[in-house]
């Protein structure tokens, strides 16, 4: 495959880094590429302008490929693969897993040179004959379980003795590297990798598979590589994010020691066999041919791709690749088990066994035997990617969380052009509905979100995409039919029934494509917990018996004589709540059945292999389950002992309890920052996301586009709230407002909808989860007495909250009149009263009196002239969302948005008033602080500051 170098040489230059692509023999087939970094952008220097690398005094190191570039706080870092391990070979092409990366700063030559020297020294140590295998690959002698991003970040930050504090941000080093929450320290020790010894693992049937190599020891390389800029950096210290050290450690762990990213130099592992046959590999660069759904570093490589530097564009995929070989016999010995055991017991003790009819000697190979290779490839989708409780369900484009395509390849070891290669595909993914679950409970109740119409629309997109990609879809739903999971399971079933009815009623022209999309969705609800109660996981055979015919009807793809001779007719989509433990048990059962079908097609009957052990298959699928589980839930898969041994006992149950506790801790504490880092590395958000995280130690779930969700809310509020058809709707905005009406500060601030017509403005409080208006307040424009615009700071617990340029808003003051009302949606005949003042006669305006019930105070107010004070409506601009800013579309700043709204309100207020001839219209906008920084500091309570500090110690 042209355009991809096997190795690259990285060295420091005056203005950045120079990357020299190398051949597999260390030659230099391409000209070097230079990287220069400005304040706001990454510039890749043309090859002919890069100086030669003949100077041996320059510090340099060789890497196996480039993952990409990250830029945050105007500082850029190069991510390169420094260690790898071959885990499989497909069609003659080696497949590697990334085992270690170097993160090299590019802010100044001094930092880059020092980092490169450390990397070079470290590689010299690990590549020594007594410490590692040849060619820089990891040793297979030791095996440790896969580790989560969060656990590795904790260990790397604390245990790395050579990690240095950033010079311009000593407070960052103290806060992020040294100071940790006591609970976090306890949990990190309790759930350390050493918590389960190799002896315990073996007793549970857990293997030392070569596909799960050891996590490399912590060293000076990566932690030193990830230092924030020194004092020589031209960037101001205040611009460096406090979370930058933790982000760089997360990058190192995610792409390196997590061992979850795979690549090949000349084989596309992102496409299954059928898709590769439909679009054969060409001479085009590999990155341009891979499936973008599984291209995890596409955003990080964008600076190189935009500059046309194909030689360093190496796609990586997250998931799992495992491979093993086994032997089958087309004419296996059929010996009575009783006689077999007797004859074996009578064999000579000397070891010189006499030939026994029907019994194969040790090491003897029968002519009817054949060796096969089985490969399991799991591809994790980049869409709605993330961690367990933070990414659930579906998004508006029809992509679901934890979407994984798993392919099982079967091929003979001695393969030629006429050999048959079988490919069986399965998929897993979260229930395609909008729902959330709290991470603060062991078994949280699923909370459905948004309207039924919104859910149906997204679910329809999801299954249309699956049908276009895979054909007919068989749904396997493993959630409980009773208990906390039953609600979402029932909604799922009802939604599928609706989609099937809708498909049959549509009257579109009958084409092959429309007929394929209208194929009814088959829904099988198998209550796994009920069927397998008492650890009887073998009852999964009940599910297999129901789906056996469907599986065999779908079949598998077949490659023969260098071409695709058969396609898979459909796909089985399996889900439980997490799509991990129950799902993996069932998927391995389906895969084993299809393996038997494929081998039977080749003339081998697995049921006749009386001496055949299936440990190799169980181990391979258990490793696959552990990998997918670690990437989504930060721990290995539960029920893994059954997947490996097909047995279940109390030791497996105790192991699952430990995994549950580990998941509980990660979901509460570690996953929030890890999710933020994943969203940033995939390009779903820009670096503003770290300000958002620092503000509340949480991460937002863009299941529905913020922009689109706000547009839908504005449209719904317009329909529900504006009763007078004569009113002309002029605009609507989503803003923040105190949760108590009529006040300027009342925490928490909630997102509301402001509607503006030619005669009034409306403050609508909206239930964003249920898509309904909770209440609204109407203010007649003729009664507006003033508009104040300026700084609006409600908290000072973190820098984003204290920035006067971003914390802005306005306050509208008005005198309530007879047309100013407030309504609350209680779905009853009652409603809050109008806001019109009481007259001297003790009665309201005629219209308001009808809707206002007589109050206790009103009994004593007759004859008194009530004075109604002015009311205030306070609005604050929401921060520019990091996902919206990352989309590339122009987004007005917070001040620009507020200024535009105030100018429009002022214009309409002036037009609603009568002015005498020649009278000049007076401006209504007063500029000044609504809540200044000094005032906000005084009003920020000690308890609020303490609570945020504790969260920062634990979460960040």
From TrEMBL:
It comes from the Eukaryota. One of its GO terms (molecular function) is phosphatidylinositol-4-phosphate phosphatase activity. Residues 704-860 form the HSac2 domain. Residues 257-634 form the SAC domain. Residues 345-356 have a biased composition (Polar residues). Residues 108-176, 204-240, 345-367 are annotated as: Disordered. GO terms for biological process: phosphatidylinositol dephosphorylation. InterPro entries: hSac2, Inositol_phosphatase, SAC_dom. Residues 151-162 have a biased composition (Acidic residues). One of its GO terms (cellular component) is endoplasmic reticulum. PANTHER family: PHOSPHATIDYLINOSITIDE PHOSPHATASE SAC1 (PTHR45662), SACI DOMAIN PROTEIN (AFU_ORTHOLOGUE AFUA_1G15890) (PTHR45662:SF7). This is Phosphatidylinositide phosphatase-like protein. It comes from Hapsidospora chrysogenum (strain ATCC 11550 / CBS 779.69 / DSM 880 / IAM 14645 / JCM 23072 / IMI 49137) (Acremonium chrysogenum).
């Amino acid at each position: 495959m042209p355009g991809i170098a096997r190795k690259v040489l990285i060295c420091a230059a005056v203005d950045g880094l120079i990357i020299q692509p190398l051949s597999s023999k260390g030659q230099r087939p391409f000209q070097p590429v230079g990287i220069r970094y400005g304040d706001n952008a990454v510039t890749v220097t043309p090859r002919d302008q890069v100086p030669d690398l003949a100077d041996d005094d320059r510090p340099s190191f060789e890497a196996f490929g480039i993952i990409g570039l990250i830029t945050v706080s105007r500082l850029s870092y190069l991510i390169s693969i420094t260690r790898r391990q071959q885990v499989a070979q497909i069609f003659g092409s080696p497949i590697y897993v990334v085992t270690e990366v170097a993160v090299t700063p590019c802010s100044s030559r001094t930092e880059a040179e020092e980092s490169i020297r450390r990397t070079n020294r470290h590689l010299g140590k690990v590549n020594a004959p007594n410490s590692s295998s040849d060619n820089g690959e990891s040793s297979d002698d030791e095996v440790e379980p896969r580790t989560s991003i969060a656990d590795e970040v904790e260990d790397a930050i604390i245990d790395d003795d050579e990690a240095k504090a950033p010079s311009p941000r000593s407070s960052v080093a103290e806060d992020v590297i040294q100071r940790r929450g006591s609970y976090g320290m306890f949990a990190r020790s309790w759930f350390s990798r050493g918590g389960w010894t190799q002896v315990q693992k073996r007793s549970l049937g857990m293997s030392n598979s070569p596909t799960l190599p050891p996590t490399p020891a912590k060293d000076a390389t990566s932690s030193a590589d990830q230092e924030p800029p020194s004092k020589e950096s031209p960037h101001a210290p205040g611009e460096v994010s406090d979370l930058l050290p933790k982000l760089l450690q997360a990058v190192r762990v995610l792409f390196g020691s997590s061992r979850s990213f795979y690549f090949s130099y000349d084989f596309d592992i992102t496409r299954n066999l059928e898709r590769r046959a439909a679009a054969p590999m060409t001479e085009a660069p590999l990155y341009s041919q891979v499936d973008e759904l599984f291209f995890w570093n596409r955003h990080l490589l964008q600076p190189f791709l935009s500059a046309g530097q194909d030689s360093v564009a190496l796609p990586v995929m997250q998931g799992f690749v495992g491979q093993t070989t086994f032997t089958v016999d087309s004419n296996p010995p059929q010996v009575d088990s009783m006689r077999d055991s007797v004859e074996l017991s009578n064999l000579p003790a000397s070891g010189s066994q006499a030939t026994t009819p029907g019994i194969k000697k040790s090491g003897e190979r029968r002519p009817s035997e054949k060796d096969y290779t089985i490969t399991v490839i799991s591809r994790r989708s980049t869409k709605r990617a993330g961690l367990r409780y933070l990414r659930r369900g579906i998004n508006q484009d029809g992509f679901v969380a934890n979407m994984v395509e798993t392919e099982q390849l079967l091929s003979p070891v001695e393969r030629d052009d006429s050999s048959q290669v079988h490919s069986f595909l399965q998929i897993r993914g979260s229930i395609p509905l909008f729902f959330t679950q709290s991470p603060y409970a062991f078994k949280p109740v699923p909370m459905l979100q948004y309207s039924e119409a919104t859910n149906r629309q997204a679910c329809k997109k999801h299954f249309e995409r699956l049908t276009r990609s895979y054909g007919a879809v068989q749904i396997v739903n493993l959630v409980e039919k009773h208990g906390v999971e039953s609600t979402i399971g029932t909604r799922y079933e009802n939604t599928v029934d609706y989609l099937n009815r809708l498909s049959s009623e549509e009257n579109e022209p009958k084409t092959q494509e429309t007929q394929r999309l209208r194929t009814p969705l088959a829904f099988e609800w198998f209550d796994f917990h009920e069927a397998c109660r008492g650890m009887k996981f073998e009852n999964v055979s009940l599910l297999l018996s129901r789906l056996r015919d469907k599986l065999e009807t779908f079949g598998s793809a077949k490659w023969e004589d260098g071409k695709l001779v058969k396609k898979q007719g459909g796909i089985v989509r399996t889900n439980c709540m997490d799509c991990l433990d129950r799902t993996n048990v069932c998927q391995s059962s389906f895969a084993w059945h299809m393996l038997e079908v494929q081998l039977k097609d080749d003339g081998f009957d697995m049921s006749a292999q009386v001496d055949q052990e299936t440990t190799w298959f169980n181990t391979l699928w258990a490793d696959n389950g552990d990998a997918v589980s670690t990437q989504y839930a930060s721990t290995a898969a539960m029920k893994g002992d059954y997947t490996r041994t097909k047995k279940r006992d109390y030791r497996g149950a105790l192991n699952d309890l430990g995994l549950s506790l580990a998941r509980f801790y990660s979901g509460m504490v570690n996953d929030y920052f890890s999710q933020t880092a994943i969203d940033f590395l995939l390009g779903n958000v820009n670096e503003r996301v770290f300000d958002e995280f620092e503000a509340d130690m949480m991460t937002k779930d863009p299941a529905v586009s913020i922009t689109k969700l706000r547009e839908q809310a504005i449209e719904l509020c317009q329909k529900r709230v504006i009763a007078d058809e004569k009113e002309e709707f002029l605009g609507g905005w989503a803003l923040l407002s105190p949760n108590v009406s009529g006040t300027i500060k009342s925490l928490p601030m909630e997102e509301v909808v402001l509607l503006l017509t030619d005669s009034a403005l409306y403050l609508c409080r909206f239930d964003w989860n249920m898509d309904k208006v909770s209440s609204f307040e109407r203010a007649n424009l003729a009664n507006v007495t003033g508009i104040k615009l300026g700084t609006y700071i409600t908290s000072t617990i973190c820098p984003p909250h204290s920035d006067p340029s971003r914390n802005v808003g306005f306050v509208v003051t008005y005198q309530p009149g007879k047309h100013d009302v407030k309504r609350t949606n209680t779905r009853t005949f009652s409603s809050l009263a109008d806001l019109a003042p009481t007259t001297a006669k003790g009665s309201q305006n005629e219209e308001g009196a009808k809707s206002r019930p007589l109050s206790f105070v009103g009994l004593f107010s007759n004859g008194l002239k009530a004075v109604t004070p002015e009311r205030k409506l306070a609005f604050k601009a929401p921060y520019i969302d990091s996902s919206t800013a990352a989309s590339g579309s122009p987004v007005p700043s917070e001040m620009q948005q507020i200024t535009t709204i105030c100018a429009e309100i002022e214009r309409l207020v002036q037009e609603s008033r009568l002015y005498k001839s020649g009278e000049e219209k007076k401006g209504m906008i007063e500029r000044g602080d609504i809540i200044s920084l000094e005032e906000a500091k005084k009003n920020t309570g000690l308890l609020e500051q303490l609570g945020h500090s504790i969260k920062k110690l634990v979460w960040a």
